[in-house]
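Provenance and format

Records in this collection were gathered into a single text stream. Each protein contributes a sequence line and a token line. The two records reproduced below are adjacent in the stream.
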Amino acid sequence: MKQLMGVINLDHELDVLSELTYFRCGAAVPFAGRYRLIDFVMSNMMHSGVEDIALFVRRKYRSLLDHLGEGGPWDLDRKRGGLFILPPDWNDPSDVSVGELQHIYNNQNFFARGPAQYIIHSGSQHLSSVDFSEAYEYHIKQGADVTLIYTKAEELLPEHRPCVRLDVNEEGIVTDIHHEHDNTNIYMDMFIMEKELFLQLMKQCIAHQESHVFRDAIQKNRHKLKIAGYEYQGYHAVINSLESYYRNSLDLLEQEKYQSLFSAQPVLTKIKYEVPAKYLESADVRHSLVANGCQIDGTVENSVLFRGVKVKEGARIHNSIIMQKCVIEENAVLENVILDKDVVITAGRKLQGDTRKPYVVAKDMVI
């Protein structure tokens, strides 16, 4: 949709996943066997016809750059427009902006050159299959200054606690923005706004040394702006802690949840050519998600295995997430464990965590 340009703001999504974000930003963390967290919002924008997308990143973005490349899997490797990965470049001596607003100030050319009249602003922590084109049409119909995208949580979980909540009246207008923990209207860190109004509000915030896009430009001005609330109904998960990452990953082993996330529209990701998974004579795999390139000669139950994992004879894996190219040697036992990429668990080792707090091994470790 040429009326919309995308802004994916990753400025504050850095270290929330502990060991998994030692070497990468949160948006680059692998998820569901073959994806990264960034893939979901990128795919939603692509399916909604958004042709210009800017990513605001501050540090730990090498892995993200490698994954996204020029944006080919999302049809964003274009001669005009496409994907813009915008790391910090604070070389303007007159710049007085701080916090997230530094990205806006230092990348004004992105907004000026883009033909779209409206902005969809999002993070990467809320996984969904939201249709931004429908949200945009709702925004226009309401005649709103800004439309906040939210969902009603069926059950309030620990990861919902830091989320912003919305009060929305029968006409679909947001009447209050707050952090009352018993409110089930979860703001998904996504909003739509006219580009000129967005830039005007950003300019005012910068002039007042404010630092946060949503809090300072929208929440503080909620009595001056007409704010609509677009209710998204579909799969939703918040990945803002190690525990939420672990639980929501294993929840996808339930077919209903897996289908609700992936059947609405395809989730696109970096293409990697791998041979099919190979199950050897001693393999016993149950209720698990196994990606291409795996070679299994042990027992795997209720677990997620990413590409190229090797599970040798006698090894047992239960309730665990094993990332790309890990090697589990003979008779090793893993239960309630997360292994980052390229980890080797030597023969006979046993690692056991708790379902509420999994045991995590950072990438490239040998245990």
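Adjacent record:
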Amino acid sequence: MAPSPREAVGQRFDPALMQHARERTWAVLRGIRERMRPGISEDEAKLEAARVCRELGIERLWHPVLIRIGANTTRTYRQRSDPRVRLGENDSYFIDLGLVFDGHEGDAGDTFVVGHAPERQACADAARTLFGEVAEAWRTRGLGGQSLYAFAGERAEAMGWRFNHAIKGHRVSDYPHSVHKGGDLGDLEATPSSGLWILEIQIAHPTEPFGAFHEDLLTGAPAHMATR
């Protein structure tokens, strides 16, 4: 059976290099986390991220580095941050990276807490847990993209969090995936293949101005989550 046009890849595509790009992207994310400190702004954090990217030898970005702090963690990728926000003593932030290594795209995102902020920690933990549940439903039940996001919304509500339905995941491949026009995972009726799709999860507190984000590559093995 011919592969779906939505899962097309280039001639140089290599699943092993996709995994390598995934692992290296998570390494960069952890390096950026080590440089986050109370008082830092998002623009200052992006400068630190650029330094980490240079030190760890990325080939290029395939999407701009996104770092959201505090109340900005409820905003989507396309929404602009409030530039006045700085990381508080008891606060949270998330990092979203799209990096290219050896011509293949990595995409990773995770949420972290500084100081003592139990509700924010619970939100960050919930985003990781929800990601794991949705990824496991894909592995064990073969759910299609639309069904995966319907399941994610139901589980988020049951867990007591607001689910951001505007975040729907997307394709990755050898760079650039955009030439294949794979579209959003949340619009895919079929079961997504392993190693080609990014599952994105964004949730928020039902009443307070903070949220959490987690994303990773859907693969046959359990998700490679960043160390807290």
